Amino acid sequence: MSSPRTQKPAMPGVQSLLLLFMLSIPSSQAWSIDYPSPIANLPSLWTNNEATIPYNTTYTDGSTIRAILVRQKPAGFGPSFGCGFICTTPCNVFLFAVFFMSIGDPSNPAFNATATPRVVWTANRYRPVKENASVQFTKDGNLILREFDGSLVWSTNSTGSPIVGMNLAETGNLILFDVMGKTVWESFAHPTDTLLVGQSLWQGKRLSSTSSVANSTQGQFYLTVLDNGLYAFIDADPPQFYYQKTFNITDAIVQSKTNISSDQVKNSTAHISFLQGSFSAFLRFNSTDINLFDISLPLPSSAQFMSLEDDGHLRVYGWDGISWEALADVLHVYPDECAYPTVCGEYGICSQGQCSCPSGNIGDDLFHQLDDRQPNLGCSLETPLSCDLIQYHKLMALPNVTYFNFAYNWTTDEGSCKEACLKTCSCKAVFFRHQNVSNGSCFLVPKVFSLMNYQSEVVGYNLSAYVKVQMLPPPSSKKINATAYHIGVPVLVAVVCLLILMIRRTIVKRMEEDDPFKGVAGMPTRFSYKQLREATNNFSKKLGQGGFGPVYEGKLGNVKIAVKCLRDMGHGKEEFMAEVITIGSIHHINLVRLIGYCSDKFHRLLVYEHMSNGSLDKWIFRKNQSGSLSWATRYKIILEIAKGLAYLHEECRQKIAHLDIKPGNILLDDNFNAKISDFGLAKLIDRDQSHVMTKIRGTRGYLAPEWLSSTITEKADIYSFGVVVLEIVSGRKNLENNQPEGSTNLINTLQEKIKTGQVLDIVDNQDEDIQLHGSDMTEVIKLAVWCLQRDCGKRPAMSQVVKVLEGNMETESTSSYDATARDDIFDASSPLSPVPVSAR
Ligand SMILES: *[C@@H]1O[C@H](CO)[C@@H](O)[C@H](O)[C@H]1NC(C)=O
Ligand SMILES: *[C@@H]1O[C@H](CO)[C@@H](O)[C@H](O)[C@H]1NC(C)=O
Ligand SMILES: *[C@@H]1O[C@H](CO)[C@@H](O)[C@H](O)[C@H]1NC(C)=O
Ligand SMILES: *[C@@H]1O[C@H](CO)[C@@H](O)[C@H](O)[C@H]1NC(C)=O
Ligand SMILES: *[C@@H]1O[C@H](CO)[C@@H](O)[C@H](O)[C@H]1NC(C)=O
Ligand SMILES: *[C@@H]1O[C@H](CO)[C@@H](O)[C@H](O)[C@H]1NC(C)=O
Ligand SMILES: *[C@@H]1O[C@H](CO)[C@@H](O)[C@H](O)[C@H]1NC(C)=O
Ligand SMILES: *[C@@H]1O[C@H](CO)[C@@H](O)[C@H](O)[C@H]1NC(C)=O
Ligand SMILES: *[C@@H]1O[C@H](CO)[C@@H](O)[C@H](O)[C@H]1NC(C)=O
Ligand SMILES: *[C@@H]1O[C@H](CO)[C@@H](O)[C@H](O)[C@H]1NC(C)=O
Ligand SMILES: *[C@@H]1O[C@H](CO)[C@@H](O)[C@H](O)[C@H]1NC(C)=O
Ligand SMILES: CC(=O)N[C@H]1CO[C@H](CO)[C@@H](O)[C@@H]1O
């Protein structure tokens, strides 16, 4: 069946004729679908699923609507309004909304499924709901949205006269009305990011952009009516406006030929209305509106809406019969397109639509682009501003640069203006607009959005712009020089000696700064932060998130590297260097090699060799069998971990306890050789002067029992090694991430199996290797149990473990398998309030 709505009218005249024709047909005859009525009466409950809301349609882009009210327009004559639940792909969360939609029978080829619905009002933009959420129109006359579990998400909270019905008006306004038909609540009074024709924005209310096209959450822009004008702001602390159109109330009163006292003006409220062909501001007093200004808009030929978008533009869209077309950009920001706060990102300078980063005389390297391929994402300071180093803040002049708007409130001279910024840590940039030779207006900016290029001849004023940058303290001994003047001669001799010492130290230090290991073979190389940023392509590919900070993949020449960015560094540079020397001097085939490091005022990074097969946990906890490791490989990995640990514990010049042995810290190279990573870092991070561990460190599930009470030694690693061995053999985690308190962990399970003599039950029983290697597995489990002894004195040394694994020694026969599960050190009753720093 072909229906008239498939025809596209050639001329507007024909269209209106057709419209009349269509409207004269009873809808039940023209369409086979029963659309919901635009009016609902009390009481009603709708649950968000297809069974209870039968009018559902899925569009080509995957968005789905479930409408509870529909204000119908015949297909082909502009979109209809719907009210109900709507989702976009992948459709796991819904908004309760009013939307424009194309209607029709989805199974009918004439229905245009590519015409995606457009949301114009949302109840729950902050908190989308799931399938089976409900919307209820209650007896006391409220509209309430509840999540599927019954929790309250949103309510109209209307009070006053009891409500009897709900109507979706022709304008798209969702209305709750009382028995007299009077409006008690309306969606038009609570706009989100969109205004419809006939809708107003009242003084004090905001029209807020969405975060992005795909994310309905409130974004950073808002349009608002204040008592003196219409403003558009970008949210910051404090918000900065980028558009302003002030009211001339005196003039408006004169124009309106009314007699209003200044008292009445104070009592009045301003609003701006989206009308047919204009965006007009009014002052309302005593239920009369007087016109303040009009911004003219294209006259509507079909449906229109106005939306504050995620780029800060306020645009009008019109329906052209097939899709929405942008008709007007309502805010005429001065001087041009560049005057929007995010057009070039933070610190980006916009010039005729092109973005660049500030560069000045102080040095060319003070800013870098966040993404070389997307200059409009903005720029970031090479060295972040630090309030602790405020004495090294400098202002970098930006010639021919201006800002999108100014809220000047201070007249002074340029020097005082700059000084005020330098003295205030929160000031990030300063603009000075020259008025006469000596004076001008000063504007301090606490957060720098996009900047823009300008020509003073064009804008008609002269401006000086500066952005604040961070310089680094120079390594010098000036302070001592200065004090020497004020001290007597005898003291002077001492001071001179001291000075010589200091200078020597400084020279030595400067050499160290350069590269303490320069020319020492096998020692880690020093890199600059910039080099590593480039090597990692601006830290774009994250390999993982370790307990000490994130790890990124990088490339030095053709060699792949892994760069670990250490965070929470409580230490000074010298301690860091000392530890880097220690770690860098350790070489063993089963330890991940440290290639280099970076240390400056703000960054501590370590550069390691790249291990192509990633960490062991990805291999042993695989759910599917494909790609799982053979028994031979697993055995080899266990032996290699043991060798690496034996080296750290017994063969290094300085004994090193790892303190976070777990599969995530065992890395595999392309031949599945195992290497231990992160060794030496526990000490680096939080051992204080007295060499006592200040926090529980390590990972839940791998912690030895003595963490609660006694001194921590390398024996804690042996316990963790025991856990890792069990995990490798069983293919199971000792403690699952979200395992509830008190449920059985792997060690407890093992203890029970030992009692019944069925140790091999813990081995993944789908594993075919078990038939072939059962006795080897039993031996390895026995070894693990030896390592898991509660009494750390009873655990073997790592060298003994290696001997057992190489077949040169027997596992010491423990009288009982006294393995112990130490989940209880995380009990709430525990006196230590442990913070497992790297728990994942
Ligand atoms: C359906 O809409 C799309 C764009 O939204 C348009 O390209 C297409 O021509 C329309 N189809 C019909 C039959 O109107
Ligand atoms: C929604 O509720 C219906 C009826 O109670 C139930 O059959 C369905 O499984 C629920 N859907 C979800 C996703 O919970
Ligand atoms: C309605 O009232 C509840 C509880 O008093 C409150 O949490 C909620 O923010 C209110 N909702 C609106 C839209 O004002
Ligand atoms: C939506 O944006 C908000 C705020 O910008 C953000 O917190 C949230 O994670 C985003 N949601 C999605 C699904 O991207
Ligand atoms: C308001 O308009 C009148 C006449 O157009 C003008 O004289 C006056 O300066 C204006 N006031 C403001 C505050 O702009
Ligand atoms: C306006 O009102 C004042 C008193 O409020 C009165 O003196 C004056 O004559 C009135 N003017 C006109 C034009 O009505
Ligand atoms: C201001 O408005 C309030 C209520 O809206 C009214 O009671 C009051 O008399 C008004 N004042 C003036 C000066 O109009
Ligand atoms: C408000 O308007 C009404 C009728 O338009 C009028 O009778 C009344 O005097 C007005 N009040 C004020 C304070 O202007
Ligand atoms: C100028 O405005 C800023 C922020 O609004 C405020 O902190 C500052 O005190 C003002 N300065 C003067 C001189 O009013
Ligand atoms: C500059 O302007 C300020 C006021 O804006 C005034 O006080 C001062 O005298 C002027 N200086 C000169 C040199 O004109
Ligand atoms: C600034 O603009 C002027 C012309 O308006 C030009 O002569 C000058 O070279 C520009 N300065 C810089 C640093 O671009
Ligand atoms: C109008 C519409 O498409 N209704 C559908 C809603 O979902 C049910 C169940 O999937 C369908 O049977 C209806 O045809």
UniProtKB/TrEMBL annotation:
Record EC number: 2.7.11.1
Gene3D superfamilies named among the record's database cross-references: Bulb-type lectin domain, Phosphorylase Kinase, domain 1, Transferase(Phosphotransferase) domain 1
One BP annotation, GO: response to other organism
Domain Bulb-type lectin span(s) in chain numbering: 56-189
Keyword Nuclease: no
Keywords in alphabetical order: ATP-binding, Disulfide bond, EGF-like domain, Glycoprotein, Kinase, Lectin, Membrane, Nucleotide-binding, Phosphoprotein, Receptor, Serine/threonine-protein kinase, Signal, Transferase, Transmembrane, Transmembrane helix
GO molecular function: ATP binding; carbohydrate binding; protein serine kinase activity; protein serine/threonine kinase activity
TM regions (residue ranges): 484-503
Leader sequence segment: 1-30
CDD domains for the chain: B_lectin, PAN_AP_plant, STKc_IRAK
Chief localisation class: membrane
PANTHER family reported in the protein's UniProt record: G-TYPE LECTIN S-RECEPTOR-LIKE SERINE/THREONINE-PROTEIN KINASE SD2-5 (PTHR47976), RECEPTOR-LIKE SERINE_THREONINE-PROTEIN KINASE (PTHR47976:SF110)
The family this protein is said to belong to: Belongs to the protein kinase superfamily. Ser/Thr protein kinase family.
Protein name: Receptor-like serine/threonine-protein kinase
Taxonomic source organism: Dichanthelium oligosanthes
Lineage, broadest ranks: Eukaryota, Viridiplantae, Streptophyta, Embryophyta, Tracheophyta
